[in-house]
Amino acid sequence: MPEWLLKDENYIPQSDKDAFITKSIMTLLGVLSRIRAQSVYKEKKFKVSAALKVAFTFVLILLISISKSIAFTIIINVYLLAVLSMMNGEEIIKILKVSIVTSAFTFVILLPAAFWGNLFSSIFITSKVFATVTAVNMLSHSTRWNSITSALKRFYVPDIFILVMDITIKYIFMLGEFSLNMFYALKLRSVGKNKSKYTSLSGIAGTMFIKSNEMAEDMYSAMECRGFTGEYQVINKKYKMTFPDFVYIIMNIALILIFIYMERV
Amino acid sequence: MIDLTDVTYSYSGNIALKNINLHINKGEAVSLLGANGSGKSTFLKLINGIISPDSGIYKFNNEEITHSKLQDTKFAKLFHQKVGFVFQNSDTQLFCADVYDEIAFGPKQMGMSENEVDKRVNDCLTLLNIVDFKHRQPYHLSGGEKRKVAIACVLALNPEVLVLDEPMNGLDPRTQRWLVEFLIRLNKAGKTLISSTHDLELVQEISQRAVLFGEDHSIAADLPTDKLLTEIDLLKKVNLVDEYYHRITYKQS
Fold first, then answer.
1. Domain membership of residue A78 as a residue range
2. Which CATH number belongs to the domain containing residue B222 in this structure?
3. What DSSP letter does each residue of B128-188 carry, written as one string?
4. Looking at chain B from residue 158 to 187, which residues have their Cβ under 8 Å from any Cβ of chain A?
5. Do residue B127 and residue A189 have CB atoms under 8 angstroms apart?
């Protein structure tokens, strides 16, 4: 044993600016906890079929984008907020936060148009953005990822597209956990003044690249061993329509009728 | 040296550690045993200041370690120098261009001269028998070699406590044997060792004391290692062993 290892270290650290490590850790933790929360998502009492939600969200976005009537956009916003109010408080805050930020950003971009006398268009487009973002976020917060992919299968979305989506979300999580541990290791070993911070970061990025490449090769081999021929089977269980499904369909058909009426007026 | 009083920690409402009371003296070698998901890795993260307790007190060298204290970079850096952590997956710990730089990463930051850093790195390379890998890229090494480099880069900081998460995982029997003997030497040299493990055959050799985590995330037993290993019913109760282990141990005895 070397002599220095037998003695206690008499060390006084210098201060160093390395907040980027903590910030990176916090960002990664946020992303991972969001994905984890999706996996432990509990089925709600009034469960609507994921296929219906995906289909009608798509229709709703289409109607919002082609509508020329501000009254229709307002009705959609009221409808979405009413449905949103039935979700739990935490989800409402998360969804509204994203919707408000994106709408505010849109409004800021459109401010020059407003100053040039096009205030109506600015408000109209902002409200359309708010409705679209809220609708998509409500879908993602109320539906499991695998339910969305199996719903896509029902609409004959190509298998390979669904496979890529499934794998992407899985590897965002796995590589996210891996890079989180790398940042923890960097933090624990950063015991003084690091003169080449960016070298450590590029080291982490390089290791991540090698790791992801290894994982991709392993997965390809594993899939070949399991007889993968390019066709991805998503199991679609037989689904029986429930009362909430009928209510959901009726409400959405009503919205489509309102759209047709408003556009004719 | 390490003192935990009524420590509780949870991940988004899921309890990971429940009412942990533990005292570890300087120079002790302690093993943490428990089934998967019993809270061993969370406990090690807490000991290293990666996470802070939701409630309860964690003291290191009679000083309370809190989240706000760890926000103070000077305090955190000194604490991290004193408590070294060897991760379960060595890949996560290695991010430098070659093995030499990897081991020199910590000592360079500690403000040592070039000669001192060089001496410390070479001592670590010799100690862990990895001199030949000095200029190799860490990601091209085998699992056992990576583990040795990971231990070397933590040892280069000369920590008072060495925390190891599943140190024997993925190692071949020869490297496992080497690591057991190395940990015994380190402990005899005065280092405090805390390691989590599932390997009941090696646990007796690397520690004098064993702490058993139950499935309820609390400490089910804290006994001398040889005594704990005879408590088959207790090990079965926490789902660490099954009937098969019982039969084998009975036959051997």
1. 46-143+240-265
2. 3.40.50.300
3. TT-GGGTTS-GGGS-HHHHHHHHHHHHHTT--SEEEEESTTTT--HHHHHHHHHHHHHHHH
4. 158-160, 185-186
5. no
Whether A180 and A129 map to the same domain: the answer is: no
Does any domain span residue B55? no
- Tens digits of residue pLDDT in A60-119: 999 999 998 889 999 999 999 999 998 888 889 989 999 999 999 999 999 998 888 888
For residue A177, tell me if it sits in a domain. Answer: yes
Q: Do A65 and A127 belong to one domain?
A: yes
Q: Tell me, yes or no, whether A210 lies in a domain.
A: yes
Contact between chains at B78 and A37 (C-beta distance less than 8 A): no
Alpha-carbon gap, residue A132 to A138, rounded angstroms:
10
Q: List, for residues A172-220, the tens digit of each pLDDT value.
A: 888 888 989 998 998 888 888 877 777 888 888 888 888 888 888 888 8
How many domains in chain B? 1
Calpha distance B10→B52 (Å, rounded): 10
Q: Measure the CA–CA gap between B58 and B3, rounded to whole angstroms.
A: 6
B94 interfacial to chain A (CB closer than 8 Å): yes
Q: Do A206 and B77 touch (CB under 8 A)?
A: no
Name the residue among B78, B82, B95 with its Cβ closest to that of A186. B95
Q: Where are the alpha helices (DSSP H) in chain A?
A: 3-6, 19-39, 50-66, 70-84, 89-115, 119-142, 145-154, 159-189, 197-225, 243-264
| Interchain CB distance below 8 Å, B110 and A204 | no
Query: Which residue is closest to B106 within chain A, CA to CA?
Result: A189
* Domain co-membership, A105 together with A171: no
How many domains are there within chain A? 2
Distance of CA A44 to the CA centre of its chain: 20
Residue A20 resides in a domain: no
**Separation of CA B103 from chain center:** 18
pTM score of the predicted model: 0.78
| B6 backbone dihedrals φ, ψ, rounded to 5° | 50, 40
On whether residue A19 sits in a domain, the answer given is: no
Give just the sign of the alpha carbon dihedral B237, B242, B245, B249. positive
Q: A82 and A132, same structural domain?
A: yes
Q: Write out the residues of chain A at the interface with chain B, using a CB-CB cutoff of 8 A.
A: 1-2, 4-9, 11-16, 18, 33, 36-37, 178, 181-182, 184-195, 199-200, 203-204, 206-207, 210-211
Flag if A5 and B189 touch (Cβ within 8 Å). yes
User: Residue B198 is part of which domain span?
Assistant: 27-49+80-252
- In angstroms, the separation between the Cα of residue B70 and the nearest Cα of chain A is 11
Structure ipTM: 0.84
Contact call for residues B54 and B9 (beta carbons, < 8 A): yes
